[in-house]
Amino acid sequence: MNAIEKCEHLVKDIYLHFDASHDFQHIERVRHNAQMISKEEGLVRLDIIELAVLLHDVSDVKYSGNEGKAKETAILDQLQLSPTDRQWIVDIIESVSFSGGHEKEALTIEAKIVRDADRLDAIGAVGIARTFAFGGAKGRKLYDWSETARVNMSEQEYRSKETSSVTHFYEKLLLLKDLMVTETGKKLALQRHEFMLAFIDQLKIETSEKL
């Protein structure tokens, strides 16, 4: 069993305990996105990209709290990676999270590909589905047109206040198109962004909200 196969086996047990917005299907879609982007972006370390994708939500504080890093470290310990490759994967994972717009800079093409691949899965039809899956798991309202989307918030503020699912579109999802960092990611994000705008317009009509 190679490192990627072993990593996949180990992370599946963890993602089984996450809701549908961050389950292993999410990982599979991000992996597919990363493969698409990689084909267009030139020579990259595909093994590093795939391992970072497989691990990128293991330490997500929304699910793992303070234990997430320990789980990530325990898995990395079993993969027999060189110190350089191991640190590379950790750096990529730390640069993926949106964190209310306070993410760390993606310094390598591999980090940029993983970030864009993950963010593509946060927008479009699947992004809509994931937003409402997460909101449902947290007991949040579908929408609240009286809410004002927050701007210039701290990472703590972003994570702590439970706004409605639709408000999350304005605080994150609709911002991602302009935050893509690879040329391929930017192109792929356009249609998904337009789909979300059309969805919100239709939702406003169905909930009697004036456009």
Automatic annotation (TrEMBL):
SMART domains on file: HDc (SM00471)
Name the coiled-coil region(s). Answer: none
Pfam families registered for this protein in UniProt: HD (PF01966)
Protein name (Swiss-Prot/TrEMBL): HD domain-containing protein
Q: Where is the HD/PDEase domain?
A: 19-132
PANTHER family given in the database record: HD_PDEASE DOMAIN-CONTAINING PROTEIN (PTHR33594:SF1), SUPERFAMILY HYDROLASE, PUTATIVE (AFU_ORTHOLOGUE AFUA_1G03035)-RELATED (PTHR33594)
InterPro entries, from UniProt?
HD/PDEase_dom, HD_domain
Tell me the organism: Paenisporosarcina macmurdoensis
